[in-house]
Amino acid sequence: MIRRPRKSLAAGIVALVLLALCVVVAVAVVQLLLGQQPVVDFGVLGSTVAGFTGADVPVLVVSGLVALVGLVLVVVALRPGTPTVFPLTSAGGAEHLDSGITRRSLNRALADAATGVDGVTKASVKSTGRRAAVTAHAAFGDPKDLRDRVRSAVAQRLDAVGPARSPRVTVSVTGTKQKEA
Hints:
By secondary structure, the protein is α+β, with helices and mostly antiparallel strands. It is built from five helices and five strands. The strands form two sheets. A three-stranded mixed β-sheet has the order 3-4-5. The longest helix has 26 residues. The two termini are 55 Å apart.
């Protein structure tokens, strides 16, 4: 039960291009019906296109560009996105119970665990299906010791949440410059 985002950017671009083409054609048709000079003269367009053969350079270039755009859209559609919901392990032998945690909720839970460590003032987490990057901002303390304690706290929270596949945790600590007296 890994929910992934929709491919809305690629679909939106294709939809906007098609909408623009439809608007241009509709405006030209209305102008023809009203007896005005159309934005796109279909007669000139048709006679121009009819003069080309499949071996002409403009036809080959346009065909190559259309094929390239199509290939890019297919790759974008087939490439899996970053999961939006991570599956959780079933607790107590519940075999048919599907449960999950959203990435945002997991990030908040891990950031909350990191800020629970003494010396850490705030924390941010970016997670993917395989990795969780924790950035802890500290007011004081040894960076190596804080990194180990934050990693331990985040690991404990991950065990409590129980994702089916635990991400690899990387921790960085910033803002621990010692002031000289």
